[in-house]
Amino acid sequence: MITKTRLLGSLPAGHGEELLRLSREVSFPPGTQLFREGETADRFWVLRSGSVALEAHVPGRREQVLETLGNGELLGWSWMFKPYQWHLGARAVTRVHAYEFDAAAVRELCARDLLLGSAFTLFVARTIARRLQAARIRLLDLPGPPDQPGPRP
Asked: Torsion-angle region of residue 12: left (phi > 0), alpha (psi -120 to 50) or beta?
């Protein structure tokens, strides 16, 4: 149930229901591209079940999976900040069931209800910080270029 997600648990009492009224239930089969880097970010999702890979485009290589999101997680934050374009891509790894939100409607709700807007923005900021830290750790684990000498004994 969506009320057990971190997002709704972080909102002031009663505000989760208000936000849910702006959602609709959707599902995607495995392999579905939900969005691509550079496209317009006009919606976001709270995953109910399944998993979604966040992918980065690397010229000359396949899309690189940066993180896999699962149940209860927020998918998408680029819709909050102009120019409202996705910074990554997202693909369903397994069958996904989610609540989909219209970005413009949620931005409008957050602008009208400053308590909700503040709590929602703080939740998204924490999500971004957590994902950036996870990406940093993964980057530190990558091997260096082949022309770099390895550590000395």
From this structure: beta
User: Would you tell me how many other CB atoms lie within 10 Å of the CB of residue 125?
Assistant: 12
Closest residue by Cα to residue 73 from 110, 107, 122, 123: 123
CATH number at residue 86: 2.60.120.10
**What is the per-residue pLDDT across 100-128, written as a single tens digit (0 to 9) for each?**
999 999 999 999 999 999 999 999 999 89
Spatial separation of the C-alpha atoms in residues 16 and 143, rounded to whole Å: 43
Tally of domains within the chain: 1
φ/ψ of 43, rounded to 5, equals -160, 170
Can you tell me whether residue 11 is helix, strand or coil? coil
pTM: 0.83
